[in-house]
Amino acid sequence: MRITADTKVCVSAGMCVLTAPEVFDQSNEDGLVTVLLPEPPEELREEVAEAVRLCPSRALDIS
Ligand code: SF4
């Protein structure tokens, strides 16, 4: 599993961080998403998929 985030469309809503805090963080400066674990372990798949679903700007992609 690989996760990518498009900071050009991220609106700093923070849903991803609330949903999967092991995988996502937000910049202290502008609140934009940062990916802590670009290749999260399989056991995190469900919460990562939920974070992708919940992102209001569809900035996250899972493959
Ligand atoms: S949920 Fe989406 S818009 Fe919000 S911080 Fe995460 S990536 Fe950005």
Provide an overview of this structure.
It is a single chain. This protein has 63 residues and is α+β, with helices and mostly antiparallel strands. It has a single domain (3-62), classed as 2-Layer Sandwich (Alpha-Beta Plaits), CATH 3.30.70. Helices cover 24% and strands 19% of the residues. It has two helices and four strands; from the N terminus they run E-H-E-E-H-E. The chain has a two-stranded antiparallel ribbon. The protein has a two-stranded antiparallel sheet with strand order 2-3. The relative contact order is 0.36. The structure holds iron/sulfur cluster.
Q: What's the gist of this structure?
A:
GO terms for molecular function: 3 iron, 4 sulfur cluster binding; electron transfer activity; iron ion binding. InterPro entries: 3Fe4S_ferredoxin, Divergent_4Fe-4S_mono-cluster, Fe-S_cluster_ET. By secondary structure, the chain is α+β, with helices and mostly antiparallel strands.
Describe the SSE topology:
Layout: E1 3-5, H1 15-19, E2 24-26, E3 33-35, H2 45-54, E4 60-62
The structure holds iron/sulfur cluster (SF4).
The site of iron/sulfur cluster (SF4) has 15 residues, from helix 1.
GO molecular function: 3 iron, 4 sulfur cluster binding; electron transfer activity; iron ion binding
Protein name: Ferredoxin
Organism: Allonocardiopsis opalescens
